[in-house]
Amino acid sequence: VQLQAFGGGLVQAGGSLRLSCAGSGSIFSINGMGWFRQAPGKQRELVAAITSSGNTNYADSVKGRFTISRDNAKNTVYLQMKSLKPEDTAVYYCWGVVNRRDSWGQGTQVTVSS
């Protein structure tokens, strides 16, 4: 089982990016999915999470700017990021409870220039 993230990059402040994370392998179930991020010198923090039924949760710092969604048929979670700020710069990690176990994707770098 593997989670693979796509979509990071360099963007100017105020811009947008869309991250995606797809699960592959012998997947029987995926419950919660989400995105965490870790900036240099800081702890990893939750950005957004979504349950299998679509309930969402966001960090206060991204509410109104980021939208998490998922496609259960494709075992994929998305993070649409708008109005990006330099403080959103971090490595973003996708996460999912896959086959009742925590699984992590590789990080993808998001850099927002001022």
Overview of this protein structure:
The protein is mostly beta strands and 114 residues long. Helix content is 0%, strand content 58%. Strands 2, 4, 5, 6, 9, 10 and 11 form a 7-stranded mixed beta sheet that branches. A 4-stranded antiparallel beta sheet has the order 1-3-8-7, with no helix packed on it. Strand 4 and strand 5 form a beta hairpin. The termini are far apart. The relative contact order is 0.33.
Core attributes:
mainly beta; globular; 114 residues; 11 strands; four-stranded antiparallel β-sheet; seven-stranded mixed β-sheet
Give the overall silhouette. globular
Number of helices: 0
Q: What is the percent of helical residues?
A: under 10%
Major sheet? 7 strands, mixed
Uncertain segments are none
Mean of residue pLDDT values: 96
Number of strands: 11
